[in-house]
Structures are given as structure tokens and as C-alpha cells.
Amino acid sequence: MIQRVDGARVDVDDDEVGVIEGPGLLILVGVTHTDGEAQARRLANKAYDMRLFGGEVSAADLGLPVLVVSQFTLYADTRKGRRPTWDAAAPGPVAEPLVAVVADELRLRGAHVATGRFGAHMRLGLVNDGPVTIVLDVD
Fold first, then answer.
1. 3 catalytically annotated
2. Catalytic site includes residue 73
3. Which of 23, 90, 102, 123 could connect to 94 by a Cys-Cys bridge, CB 3.0–4.6 Å?
4. Identified catalytic residue from 73, 85, 118, 133
5. Do you find a cis peptide bond into 23, omega within 30 degrees of 0?
6. Vertex 30: Cα angle to 25 and 32 (nearest 5)
7. Tell me, which fold does domain 2-134 have in CATH?
8. What is the mean pLDDT of residues 6-34?
9. Which is the catalytic residue, given 3, 39, 71, 115?
């Protein structure tokens, strides 16, 4: 999930672990069992190149920062009952390196990248600009 933001931060245990100031992107990354490095790289590039800013320009065009946060709950299955299941979400040992690939690919593109902390209870603060929120599936 991509959000166009005017600043975002992530805290763990009252410590700021990642922050971007001014306009940029917050990318919430969900990983499923069939995802691999190719999907992670495609996600990073598609998100960074998506024309979400005024004048039909992308974060890449403007050199904007990105906050990347792992979010397995994007794969919640809510079809039955009131308790979601996350069976479609990849386990930590599979997902963590792929979230890192997303961040690394963005850095290779020249983006300033901040991240959350994988597996931690995180508190996100953001100003959604627009609001603009895009669900991006690279398959």
C-alpha cells in the first residue's frame, strides 16, 4: 500500500526509528508465500515511479524520501467470523529479507529511505496528502 505523505514517522517503544520530512511516500509492504526478490524489486520501482504528485510526476522524478514499513496485516482474511486470519502472510524468515529488498532497491535508485523495525509493535504517524492511498499488487 502506497500513501502520498507530507511527512511520516515510525516509533518503537517511544523511540523514533524512521522518519521522512516533507513530501514523500509511505510504503506499507505485505509479503505472501509466493513472493520473491523479483516481486520486491518490481514493487519498489513501480511505487517510486508512480505519478502521484502534482504535474504528473513521481517520487523518483522529484527525488523524494520513502518510509518503508512491513505490514503483514495487509494479508488479513476477514471472510469468516470476526477474527481475521493471516494465513496468506509469509512468515518472518521469508518476509523480512523481502521487505529489506524493497528498501535496498529504493536506495539503489537514489532515494533517502527510512524503515520501521520488522516484527516490532510500531506506531506510525503520518500526514496523508490528498488523501492519496494506492493498493499496489505487482502480480
1. no
2. yes
3. 90
4. 73
5. no
6. 150
7. D-tyrosyl-trna(Tyr) Deacylase; Chain: A; (3.50.80)
8. 97
9. 71
pLDDT at site 139: 77
- How confident is the model over 40-80, as pLDDT tens digits? 999 999 999 999 999 999 999 999 999 999 999 999 999 99
The dihedral sign for the CA sequence 39, 28, 112, 131: positive
pLDDT at 138 exceeding the cut of 90: no
Going across the sheet that includes 2-12, the strands are: 113-115, 66-70, 15-29, 2-12, 122-134
pLDDT in tens, 92-135: 999 999 999 999 999 999 999 999 999 999 999 999 999 999 99
72 is catalytic: yes
